[in-house]
Design a protein that fits this description.
The chain is of the alpha+beta class and 392 residues long. The chain has nine helices and 17 strands. Strand 14 and strand 15 form a beta hairpin.
Amino acid sequence: MPVIVLCAYALTLAAQSVTGLQDPRPASLVLDQSGVIDEPTERRIDAQLVALRTATGAEVALVTVDDVSGTPKAFATALFAHWQLGSATRNDGVLVLMVMGQRRLEIETGDGMQASLPSWWLADMQAKAMVPRFKARDFAGGLAAGIAAIDGRLRALPGESERDVAPGEYRSDNVVAPGTTAPSSPPHAPGAPARGVHAPPPPDDGPSATEYAVGGGAAAGAVGGGGALAFVVARRRRRCAKCKVKMLPLDEIADDAHLDAGQRTEERIGSVNYEVLVCPGCQDSRTLRHGKWFSGRSKCPACGYKTEKSTSTTIVTATYDRGGRVRVDEECAHCNRRHSHTYTTSPRTRPSSSSSSSSSSRSSSSSRSSYSSSSRSSGGGRSSGGGAGSSW
């Protein structure tokens, strides 16, 4: 597109106001005001976000607009407060905002999500998964990739388990001797924490190449030393708590003896990678869990493993005059649970006229100051401005 045409297009963009945007919830979590997302991709993203909300409670909304008055960051914070994203107790809302006229993406996080989605991780993810697609004018693909990354991170809660005696002796020369005693710890029930399970470690625990957090450790160091702290924590997890020596990793075949059936299924389908470490001295073992992103699997509500796959099928396509209907089929690769449910989507939102947008934008600055106080008093989630943004 010629530069002159692009400039003329930019001049025709109407600045959108916060109050001028129709909240698509609860039926939908996507509002494509700019029309940059094709219908199949929009349905897929919407189904993914609704499923994420059902599974975890986290409410992630995706919004695209032509332009805003003021900065996209201020608009994202104001819209988050106006819509009251997330729970009032957990503050687990997330807003993904694309402002086409300013070529800017903002991801606003609720106060309760800043530990799960820290700014350094969001910035790193955007640079790797979203911005390259935006530069190639694949806006729908970039937004879908970002939503998938957020979905994967919120669903994958890496943890670790320990047991006192490993099924075999593991020496510092990497020789494995057959064990003569059975493990002293009984296997844990599916979906329940194993004995000795600790609080979920940082997502960059371990050298899993499938996680952005590995590369994001360096970015965290630049932001505030978080990368150095995560590195120290990861090193400690690889040393025996009793002997203080470096534990030895088992290969993919040997570590199966330390995993239960559900964990082996997770590894087989590629949703989780387990890393088993054994102390060459006291024989204690430790299992590190690395959840994989973009695996297309979520936690099964029946067995508790990350082995469930959801498939969305549009039964009725939404139009400007009526909502649509989507069927979601869930199937677990471990316990063979099958479940189907349907939900109704909201009607598609018509682009606002330039006149209404112009009048709304004039009132947006005066009304923004009341959003934060009104949303908190009525019980919605809140954001103190956490998140990260990118330009392309």
